[in-house]
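Example record

The entry below shows one chain as it appears in the dataset: sequence first, then structure tokens.
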Amino acid sequence: MALLDFFRRRRDASPAALGGFLRAQAAYVAQKTVLDYCRVKAGRSEKQLFSDPDFQAALAHCRWQVFFAALGDVTALVEAHLRPHAKGAEDILREALVRLHQAALDAEPPPAAEAQAAADAREGLPHHLASLQLEPPFPAHRLPLLAEPVLFATLPVHPEQRQGESLAIKGALRFQMVSTQQELELRFDAAETARNLLN
């Protein structure tokens, strides 16, 4: 009975819950993608590698950078999901999502070394969403990902040591975004959420 109740439960539609979803999913996408790759790459040397201070510093930098980009991607994914329910009010939807994105950035201030990247993410998102709104909504498997070039630029594994692995790395990131879309559809009522954001 409890299982049936779980599947029958009312989906959420509150802006506050959606804001929490943005932040949590972006963090998950960043950590899952980066850590899984590094652990597989390290193999039996994982304990030694992850205890190295230089690697830890590079890993932390990568995770923050990918988080900022993934937060933009998750916000863009949400915009695409809700846009069909905001016809004629796309600008209002975009502005509401920008506010949630900014709140997610403010929820956990980054280290000083990452502050500029956070500021860049904050400034760039309105333009990114506006550009995406010139096209029909992209599903997760086709959404242009801000996180992809950032991931490749900051992975704490030298490019020479990841030759031939680009497709696997891209695929892992894309898989997390598709999973995010599925979670979004499961947890939120798109029409009601859009209405709440527009009011």
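Notes for this example: The CA atoms of residues 14 and 196 lie 7 Å apart. The mean pLDDT is 94.
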